[in-house]
Amino acid sequence: TGRRNVAAIRDGTGKSIQGEPMSSDFAAEYESLRQKAVSHWASIFSGTKPIIMVGTATCGRAAGALDVLNVIHRELEARNSDVPILEVGCMGHCYAEPLVAIFKPGGEYPPLLYGYVTPDTVRLLVRDYVFGEDPSLEFLLGALEPNEMLPALADLPRSSYEKHILLENCGRIDPEHIEHYIASNEGYAALAKVLQMDPLYVIDEIGQSGLRGRGGAGFPTGEKWKICRNAPDEPRYLICNADEGDPGAFMDRSILESDPHSVIEGMLIAGYAIGADQAYLYVRAEYPLAVARMSTAIDQANRMNLLGDHILGSDFDFAIHLFQGSGAFVCGEETALIASMEGRPGMPRHRPPFPAAEGLYGKPTVINNVKTLASVPRIIRNGAKWYSEIGTTQTSGTAVFALAGKVINTGLTEVPMGTKLREVIFSIGAGIPGGRGFKAVQIGGPSGGCLPESELDRAIDFDSLKEAGAMMGSGGMVILDEEDCMVDVARYFLEFTQNESCGKCTMCRLGTRQMLQILDDITRGEAEIEALHTLEQLARDIQEGSLCNLGKTAPNPVLTTLRYFREEYEAHIRERRCPARRCYDLMAYYILPDKCRKSCDACVGTCTVEAIYQGKTGIKVIDQEKCVKCNTCMEACPPEYNAITKISPLSELPEAMPPLEKE
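User: That's the sequence. What structure does it adopt?
Assistant: Structure tokens below.
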């Protein structure tokens, strides 16, 4: 490019075709950085003092982790203690936040992880376990055995199914200290290794690993890099796509917040391989903590000569710039993302040419997802063969999922490709809460598919899920139980994609709107059976006629629910009945006279529209004309009475108590 020397391509004999043989002085430069980082790390973990680690990623903060952290600081200050406190990232157990891990170097007990910590319990935890002021050992055992105050998290069976590669540092290091990344797992060693390699060899290594894009499409990463590298135009650009817009998905956000330097190192290696010296991290502005921690990480890497000019003393120059997107879901599509970066409306364009040949400012551009780039340093460090042996023959490596919805253990998990859906949901996620039955898993984001229980033994990989009508997507996994209506679920996800459509394509703009109108009619009991044929035909036309993957995949939730749950659609249409009793227009709340207690007024007092009244007999009645079906009365009714039920179809609703019997 004229700004760095990457023209020295070797011919396979170790000799360069152009330029001088590559120097290895930068390897010594890296070793000097590593030694300093290891010394810093050892000063924390090789001493005799306990170490307290608090998860302060977004999930922890939402649950009150900063309050817990403040209490720990106050307790240590009161004792004039210099016990180290590390603010770490997401530990994966988001359901149990706030999380606190305590290490006692030299002690006879293993590191303990405490969940559901409160300011009150952490105060006692510091007193009893960290300082041993109370010999009762109640808190020592709290993380190993369940008790009333601290449920168990250690030795969970999920660990036998998980394999942490991308999440290996999450929750283990302070993401705002570059020394932790360097010392804990040889961070930036892959960069130092790459600087001694030909760029084409780096591309070949990534290709041999079988790494496929983790943003959803699953395109081979090495092939994309090769196309960009071979493009004749210059300069070339690299973009890290962190525009994570799927409802219920937070995988990329957690990696940015918990292990930002793995993304930076991956970007450095990718930039070196394709011949780029400028890169952009496209991150949504709704991720303030991720933006802050990535900014800090970039500044640290610049100060340590791991970014900027003459990295590690080599001829490689590379700069990373943060670009904050404004949250348009369609900007997750490559060409729409590029358009927004260039100051134009975030709308996709026709392809080819693909961005790898003609992207940002008309120049060759590689766009990779956060998880894709974070995988790169691990592959270079351990070798393509190591990575290719993880997962399946079709899809190597691991998959990171955000478990959300009706599952006990919500949070992050990373499993080898090929793991069964059943193992993720029931062995890692611990199944469905409240003793309810599993109904479906919506996988692949809002444009993914809904798979029933009969598909739970399907292996997780790009091709297998596509065969079932779903897709890997970026890693969102929403669990649904028997109380969810699949027609309403399809309507919900289609409404999201319809609202997020940029409007450029007629089929996407108008077709999804018409599909949504049909689904609305079905949930109101106003459709005829012919509507199902129209839905399917529209879905196929939209898939064929849309320009980008937002439109091409938007019908997936409808098509898969029609494929696997067609009887629910037919019940809505033929019987005007919602089997799950979720569609408001097809159901009503009713108080069971034989269960209602005269002395209880819980439902009357909580009804926001005064739709519940008490007759002369003392039994409560719901005025169906006033009822807005907000579910407040059902939640207020004491469980020992269980006197309120939902009825569908409306034809089964008993006649309400006539108004003249009101008190």
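Residues 1-23, 657-663 have pLDDT under 50 and may be disordered.
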